Amino acid sequence: MNLEEIKSEIEANVPGCSLEIIPNGSPSGQHSLLVDPDHAFAVAGFLRDAANLRLDYCSNVTGVDWPAKEVSTKVKTKKVVDGVEQEVDEVLKTQSGGYLEAVYHLFSVEQRQGPVVLRMRTEDRADRVHLPSLTPVWRSADYQEREIFDLFGIIFDGHPDLRRLLMWEGFEDHPMRRDYVDPDDYEYEPTAHDEVLKRAKEHLSAEGGL
Amino acid sequence: MDEQLKSELGRQGVVATSLQELYNWGRKCSVWPLNFGLACCAIEMIAATMARYDLARFGAEVFRPSPRQADLMIVAGTVTKKMAPQVVRLYNQMAEPKYVISMGACAISGGPFKQGYNVLKGIDRYIPVDVYIPGCPPRPEALIDAFLLLQKMIDEQRLTGPNRPRHLNADLPSEFIVPEFGAHDLVPPQNPEVWKVPLVNISIAGKNESGRD
Asked: Which of A25, B19, B45, B157 could bond to B76 as cystine, CB 3.0-4.6 Å?
């Protein structure tokens, strides 16, 4: 069963949900299904229990950080230049809102099919980072959702035991986010180059050396 | 005493020794390691103690499960930042004289995880290390070699004078700072009494050095 069929099947059975197929241009062609967080729990329950799908095995859950980036679009506008009206290309720069993503890889042991890739997106990267936990549906998501909570900072509502996994309680950062700055504890080896050399120079100039 | 005279006497059936030699011989032949491992290096450490490599030949057969009874800490594996305070605390709880072998790339410097966010970049940032074994993981032979090196080091220690072992010098510290979990990193990130940032002249790094190119 391909993803379009799964999508229409879900839409027929879970009322009100909005789905979107995210195409994957690589040779593997593993397209994924973007689910809206409000209906994700119902969709997950349907995927697991539907007789012809039976996606009963969640093999992997991972997070992705999509920081805000600048999108430039060319717009043709009419302008008066030197008394003559001309058509000028104007570049409009807008900030696309960043968000965090949780990705679920599902397989069916019974139907021998998969992977079906589910995605959920948070509204932004700062405060509205809540997603529904799918651990009640697939028990195997438990630790992986905790890991995503720890490293990306997505808060999974409904998770039975949402604590940090790799870092300690009281740690404030989320190390897998793109804008994470790791502590300045490099050891500056004599052959420092590239990134390490840059950081070494910053470190030493901050200390007043060099 | 003259070494030649001593061996000459030995051949005649007379044993001549000094208190220092006896003391060091006793110490070096009963180094009991602490029974703890952190990652894959621990598997090699276990292999080194089993029948094939038989670390017991050198007097290290009893791995003690309590730091109070152990003399040697083999830091075998990756020390995560979450684990580092416990490792230092165990070291503090060991009775003097105590030694540390830093086994494998991770325990020396963080190894392949050096630029990660959750691995300590070398246990020598918090406790003094006697022997480093490179490798990922080092083979049991390398651990035995490190162990023999440690025995040699113990054997050569003089019990008096300024370079006497730490446990005979009341001025030297036996306990070291246990780091605490901070908001961004361990606090302190290293113990300045034990470890200093290696001095490297980076002003010439990255440029063509003389004698090259």
From this structure: B45
In a domain, A204, yes or no: no
For the stretch A97-155, pLDDT in tens is 889 999 999 999 988 887 899 999 998 888 889 999 999 999 999 999 999 999 999 99
Express each pLDDT in B141-165 by its tens digit: 999 999 999 999 998 888 888 888 8
- CA B27 from chain centre, in angstroms, equals 15
Residue A144 in any domain: the answer is: yes
Predicted confidence at residue B193, as pLDDT, reads 86
Structure confidence at residue A208 (pLDDT): 60
Neighbouring C-alpha atoms within 13 Å toward the C-beta of B182? 10
Compute the nearest-CA separation of A154 from chain B (Å).
18
CATH of the domain at A20: 3.30.460.80
Split into its structural domains, chain A has a count of: 1
Domain carrying residue A163: 3-65+99-185
Q: Name every chain A residue with its beta carbon within 8 A of the beta carbon of B205.
A: 190-193, 197, 200
User: Which helix (H) or strand (E) segment is B69 a member of?
Assistant: none
Residue B28: CB partners within 8 Å, gap ≥ 6?
Answer: B59, B150, B151, B154, B155
CA separation for the pair B178, A105 (Å, rounded):
41
The structure tokens listed for A29 are: 């062609």
- Alpha-carbon gap: B179 to the closest alpha carbon of chain A (Å): 13
Which chain A residues touch B202 with a CB distance below 8 Å? 188, 192, 197, 200-201, 204, 210
Question: Hey, of B124, B180, B202, which one would you mutate to test binding to chain A, going by the most A CBs within 10 A of its CB?
Answer: B202
Question: What's residue B213's pLDDT?
Answer: 39
